[in-house]
Amino acid sequence: MNVALVVLDTLRYDAFQRHFDWLSGIRFENMWSTGRWTVPVHASLFTGKYPSEIGVHAGNTTLDCSEPTLAETLSEADHTTRGFSNNVNITAPFAFDRGFDFFDGGWRVQNLDTDTFDWETFVTETRNRGPRRYLTGLRRCVTEDCATWPSIKRGALLKLRDLGISEQPDDDGASETLEFVRETTFGSDEFLFVNLMEAHWPYEPPQSYRRSDSDSLQDGDSYNGLAATLGEGPPIDSAILERAYDDSVRYLADVYEEIFSVLREDFDYIVTLSDHGEMFGEHGVWQHAYGVHPALTHVPCIISGEGVPDQQCAAPTSLLDVHQTILTLMEEDAPSDGRVLPTESVGEWVAKQSDSTTDESYACFAEHHGINRRSAARVAANGGDPSEADHELAGVATASGYGYETPDGLSMAEIVSERDGEHTASMEKFRNRLATHRKRIQRRTVEETATTSSVIQQRLESLGYA
Questions:
Q1: Cβ neighbours around 24 below 10 Å, total
Q2: Mean pLDDT, 10 residues at a time, the chain of 466 residues
Q3: CA–CA gap between residue 122 and residue 133 (Å, rounded)
Q4: pLDDT of residue 436
């Protein structure tokens, strides 16, 4: 049995609906993430636990929990495990390679643990300075404390790509992912994890997909979601940001269609999902910097494969369920807070899951654990007060709706109903659900102690993380 898990990082549910109508399988229209950003959500996908249980969130960004990861469980049972991540946060320095027999990634995650000059961040930060920027970079390779010759070699490769001499398109790693899946000889008992970053800031698809001149994002180097949320907004017009994001998603949809086609040749099941959404000023929030608003936590998810019907599942489901589902498909077992998602008849699955007329027994929670120290330092350096966002919030989705905490109190969002008619729920029911969740969870107390290299710090800054 071969199963692939593909995370389309930062893909909003509504953007998925617009651009991924080609993707077949069971669509989970009421899928909820466990958090607002990459690290805690991937930790949940890998362990089947909420971020507060395993202590991996804004307060600790390393996957150092005692619980076994999905890849560890599968690898120990003699399944081949491979990972290809294009997100700096989901890499070996943060222990997200645990259990993988093979773990690599695209250009953004290369050379994280070496002393080579950080060309990737340099190119991003100097995108509007013309060809002379490479002379500046070469001079820094010689004068700064880095390995000179490897640094110059890396810069030359990036310059060839910039000139179009390299066959690699100018993207955030999807083309390298496509090359990886095309060139890999997969066996008959494999688990593959992939993270694609095309929908993530800095929204730079290949030139042919851009509807605006790249100069319109020239102030993007200073765009940080938390700073914009706690300050006066981003340095770029919101309409330009949304258009650039949509351009990036259009490219992601096209290139993922190619990747998906290759994967279907070797994999029995492919689980495609987003870890979280993106905000463009709704409720005063930008990027995915703060809160558990539904635009962040309501995410797309679809299971595809031979014999999987094209159906919709409107029952509330959680990304925690993906962990248990993959284990079951590969005939393995491990502790998990999730349940097994349907891969055949949705109607039969819903009937088995429900033990009441409204299926109120199952709830999907999302957690916000404040902000990490790198983001806090960025806001403080700009004269802001990071404590305004450094608190806990939570949301809960049931068959009745989605209730979520904000600084102004509890709010409720409409969601897809799995039955005809409306289910009404009082705010008190949502409050009780959240209170019960907090009491049930056995929290792991953590404190961020790990330090990151200057290269990792610069890469994170270029993605708006710090």
A1: 15
A2: 98 98 97 97 98 94 96 98 96 96 92 72 71 84 80 74 60 95 96 98 92 66 87 92 96 98 98 98 95 98 96 95 98 94 92 58 92 84 89 93 93 63 67 93 81 76 76
A3: 9
A4: 93
The answer to whether 400 and 423 have CB atoms below 8 angstroms apart is: yes
Among residues 7, 6, 2, which one has the least CA distance to residue 74? 2
- Counting Cα atoms < 13 Å in the Cβ hemisphere of 2 gives 15
Asked if residue 202 has a cis previous peptide bond (ω within 30° of 0), the answer is yes
Q: Which residue has the tokens 């050379």?
A: 111
Q: How far apart are CA 356 and CA 339, in angstroms?
A: 17
For residues 318-357, b (16+ Cβ closer than 10 Å) or e, as one string?
bbbbbbbbbbbbbebebebbbbebbbeebeebbeebbeee
CB-CB contact of 32 with 8 (8 Å): no
Report the candidate in 6, 30, 37, 33 with the shortest Cα–Cα distance to residue 279.
37
Among candidate residues 250, 240, 360, the one with its CA nearest the CA of residue 11? 250
What distance lies between CA 48 and its chain's CA centroid?
16
Domains of the chain listed by start with CATH number: 3-106+173-462 (3.40.720.10), 115-170 (no CATH)
d(CA 124, CA 453): 18
In SS3 terms, the chain reads as CCEEEEEECCCCHHHHHHHCCCCCCEEECCEECCECCHHHHHHHHHHCCCHHHHCCECCECCCCCCCCCHHHHHHHCCCEEEEEECCCCCCHHHCCCCCCCEEEECHHHCCCCCCCCCHHHHHHHCCCCCCCHHHHHHHHHHHCCCCHHHHHHHHHHHHHHHCCCCCCCCCCCHHHHHHHHHHCCCCCCEEEEEEECCCCCCCCCCHHHCCCCHHHHCCHHHCCHHHHHHCCCCCCCHHHHHHHHHHHHHHHHHHHHHHHHHHHCCCCEEEEECCCCCEECHHHCEECCCCCCHHHHECCEEEEECCCCCEEECCCEECHHHHHHHHHHCCCCCCCCCCCCCCCCHHHHHHHHCCCCCCCCCCEEEEEECCCHHHHHHHHHCCCCHHHCCCEEEEEEECCEEEEEECCEEEEECCCCCCCCCCCCCHHHHHHHHHHHHHHCCCCCCCCCCCCCHHHHHHHHHCCCC
One-letter amino acid for residue 302 of the chain: I
